[in-house]
């Protein structure tokens, strides 16, 4: 490549390239305001990393069009139903963000006889991508569960089930070496086996002579590293292995517990949550010794079906979407009152919050719409 010989030549070339770019853009109005699907997925990942989702969950891009498409319209929904799919088709959306994954269990065939498989086929035929964040939204800091507990007012909020870093698991190997040469030989064998330029370690000289060594290695290399250390008489006799716990991700995880700044009565808590969730009715189970006038100082919440997260938690009030009859009895007998909204009613209101966040991260002409056809299947008659 020929190097620029003067600033004047360089300046002329830059101006020509900019003029060409402006000319190219002016002749492509159809791409204006559209974003590549991958770029939108990167924004979704940034707002709620999929690594925060539970291991059993099925999150991320679930349906991908066969032909690359640029996104100008996104539909947000809590559940992807036939009615919501018809809405997406009418709006000509390129992407549906469905909080609940329409594909959860393994699929061996795609048939019209199954309603979920029918939805997938319709999405494929219409060239609509489908993305699901589910428990990543639940876990992320300032996500769905933080929004849910905020309905009770300000308080000191903590996570019920802490999320941890998804970095590869590591082990710490501690052992004794007689001298520098012995240590260098062992480290060189480990390094060659791992195929790495260096191996992280620390060493401290002991008063009796020799060195106490601490070596950290990925769990995938643990067996090989141990086999090498066992060949050394000093290292093998002193070897101690511990698992390095993954770092907690502060503010992230399932469920929230709030110690309210201002305690309220159970009756007031009901009204607060009706307003927050936009509902006229909620179900209430009073805990033992509780009345509608009893004060609520601590609140534990979990969006959706929260019994597994709330089990064993000590709080004056549980708030979740659904619990079984016997799970409610267990909570009541332990002294916790329970508010149930039905499953998706505890989640759907967060779509408005997420819409604002997503819109602020996308090109200003990309439309983000909340479904008008999405609703909880259960109604109070």
- SSE order, one letter for each helix or strand: HEHEEEHEHEHHEEHEEHHEEHEEHEHEHE
Strand order of the largest sheet: 7-12-14-15-16-13
Task: Report helical residue fraction.
Answer: 25-40%
Gap between N and C termini: 76 Å
Q: What oligomeric state do these chains adopt?
A: single chain
Shape: globular
Mean pLDDT, rounded to whole units? 89
The gyration radius over C-alpha positions equals 28 Å
The poorly predicted ranges are 1-32
Question: Overview of this structure, please?
Answer:
The protein has 381 residues and is α/β, with parallel strands linked by helices. The chain contains 13 helices and 17 strands. The strands form four sheets. Strands 7-12-14-15-16-13 form a six-stranded mixed sheet, sandwiched between helices. A five-stranded mixed sheet has the order 2-6-5-4-17, sandwiched between helices. A four-stranded antiparallel sheet has the order 9-10-8-11. Helix 7 (180-194) packs antiparallel against helix 8 (222-229). The protein is globular. The chain starts with 6 loop residues before the first helix and ends in an 11-residue tail after the last strand. The relative contact order is 0.14. Residues 1-32 have low confidence and may be disordered.
Quick structural summary:
By secondary structure, the chain is of the alpha/beta class.
